[in-house]
Amino acid sequence: MSTYVALLDGGRREETVEVTQQAPGLYEVRIGGRVHVVDAFKHDYGTLSLLVDAQSYTAMLDDRGAKVHVRVKSSVFPLEILDEKKLRMRRAPARFTAEGRQTITSPMPGRIVKVLVKAGDPVREGQGLVVVEAMKMENEMKSPKDGRVVELLVQEGQTVEGNARLCAVE
Amino acid sequence: MSSKRRIRKVLVANRGEIAVRVLRTCREMGLATVAVYSEADRGALHVRKADEAVYLGPSPARESYLVVDRIVAAARKTGADAVHPGYGFLSERAELARALEAEGITFVGPRPDSMDAMGEKTTARRNMQAAGVPTVPGSPAAIAGEDEARAFCQVIGYPVMIKAAAGGGGKGMRRCDRAEDLPALWQSARREAASAFGDDRLYVEKFLDRPRHVEIQVFCDEHGNGVSLGERECSVQRRQQKVIEESPSCVVDEAMREAMGAVAVRAARAVGYVGAGTVEFLVDASRSFYFLEMNTRLQVEHPVTEMITGLDLVRMQLEVAQGERILAQDQVVRRGHAIEARVYAEDPARKFMPSPGKITYLRVPGGPGIRDDSGVYTGWVVPPYYDPMISKVVAWAPTRDQAIARLIRALEEYTVHGITTNIPYLAAALDHPAFRAGDYDTGFCARYEQDLVRPPDPRLEQVALIAAAVAAFKRDHDEAAAFAVRGDVGPARGSAWARLGRASALKGRLR
């Protein structure tokens, strides 16, 4: 038997799932108090055909680094699946908060069309900092907290990569 | 000036799904084809679909797809005798049509002077008023600056729509509800217009209450014939961009269709129009309609009309460009109902933030009445430089209810991995009671935002958890072989194919 912990809603919720293999492709899966008999068949890339207590489902698993997006019909569940070892490692460091210095990064490759603040400016949570244009659309990057702009790393007109550091608020 | 010359080689001055769409018809017509591409698009699908391909320049559109000289040079170099501009980019630039004309190359579209008359939105409004076509109240010409705009808005009253004079496709367009919001919206619209069209002039129109966007597809030839192919309703829009389009419209009956069709053909005739064009109208709550603008090109949503009429609009464009005659109005037959959904690489949960990146897996829907016009493939990296639309799915069915059900079914089949798409959002919009009832307007997406970006169905969470856990278990225990050749247990028992598979696997092992 293997035990996994699924992190849901961006890590705010956990579910424990126990999987026992009964035969090739046949599993007993326990979630909370419920036990399901699951026949699983792997199709092409990321597609899993599941017969759960005789109900037929197609689950499509889109691996995104540590996370996986599981789609069933029109519902997408972004989740992270951890075994017990990974879970212990995960629990060791402190949890992320908006305390201290926050670095704002570009969500995608694009161009800086507007810088709305200067280094040293006081800012409020939700206040616009930098406008990034990608795919002909503008996106305003907002401050995650009340504080002060301690570092400004980009200029108007500059091209940036995805995840590029734009500025820091403390 | 009408050249009766046969077209033999077509250069498609575009990229993405529309380039693929045009190239497909060219292939069917036995025409030779030339693709053009930017640095980011070397691996794009349209490059593969063409007989020849010419490199244009660096990835940003203003250094490649928007450079008239490079398009003309590519056509000259490859000996193309016609250029199809698709939509967007240079499709509504009279400058390209003129440059091609000077080279003796056919532009697949209207004459440059018709584009001048319609392409500049404020000129178009004046021309339409002169032709007796009803228009929305607004500024008679482009507005010089923010102060002048504020003064004008004070006169016509808020809410207003700020629009790009050279615009189209929702770019450089902002709805402004209050005077204090004007400066920020004006500047932002100006920047977007400059980057999308290379022209930052703006004008202002009164914003109608709960308007519906209904447009008429017209077609004209150079022999003075003009027909209407009926309407498309495109009121489901987010950020002024169309998301879902359908025909027939729920507010248009036969009498209104005829009236709008006649006005649209008159509008096209007023500017000596030739080729495919779309006359866009706003329809208010009392079903009065106002001219909005004319798009002097093929529209993104043209497949809706193709499904309803059975016609190939790209083929018709090429035939008209060769000087042929179009069909007569009484030969236009409309049948059933068609709906199109635009699949965008974007995340509706993050304010429709574009989601460029690598498509790690793609499976497109099939089955009865489904058409998928796509420009991507598994392994393609959606570049950040262009529009985030990756595909259009269209469903046809005898009735509207069946078409809705069919399109939702197709969207459930549509699988795109690696990037985030709006597919669940599209399904939620089609499934919304207001859409199903046909009771919607251009405010639909904003009004029902909460319903459309809906959380996943909690009833399916257990299935998702089972899938993720079983996949993890499988990976951890590396039992790929057991999945491929199943043993005597499980539901495959008794199947001759399963026994055969196991037998040959065993034989292989003994050898």
What does this structure look like?
The complex is a heterodimer of chains A (about 170) and B (about 500). Chain A is mostly beta strands. Chain A has two domains: about 1-90, Glycoprotein, Type 4 Pilin (2-Layer Sandwich); about 100-170, RNA polymerase II/Efflux pump adaptor protein, barrel-sandwich hybrid domain (OB fold (Dihydrolipoamide Acetyltransferase, E2P), Beta Barrel), CATH 2.40.50.100. Chain A has one helix at about 85-90, and strands at about 1-10, 15-25, 25-30, 35-40, 45-50, 55-65, 65-70, 75-85, 100-105, 110-115, 120-125, 130-135, 135-140, 145-150, 160, 165-170. Chain A starts with a strand and ends with a strand. The N and C termini of chain B lie far apart (about 80 Å). Chain B is of the alpha+beta class and about 500 residues long. Chain B has 19 helices and 22 strands. The longest helix of chain B is centred in the middle third of the chain and has 17 residues, at about 255-270. Helix content of chain B is about 35%, strand content about 25%. The interface between A and B is large, with 66 and 61 residues.
Defining key terms:
heterodimer, A: 170 residues, mainly beta, Glycoprotein, Type 4 Pilin, OB fold (Dihydrolipoamide Acetyltransferase, E2P), 2 domains, eight-stranded antiparallel beta barrel, four-stranded antiparallel beta sheet, 1 helix, 16 strands, 5% helix, B: 511 residues, alpha+beta, Rossmann fold, Dna Ligase, domain 1, D-amino Acid Aminotransferase, Chain A, domain 1, 4 domains, eight-stranded antiparallel beta sheet, five-stranded parallel beta sheet
Report a brief summary of the structure:
The complex is a heterodimer of chains A (170) and B (511). With 170 residues, chain A is mainly beta. Chain A has one helix at 84-91, and strands at residues 2-8, 13-23, 26-31, 34-42, 47-52, 55-64, 67-72, 75-83, 102-105, 110-115, 122-123, 128-134, 137-142, 147-152, 159-160, 165-169.
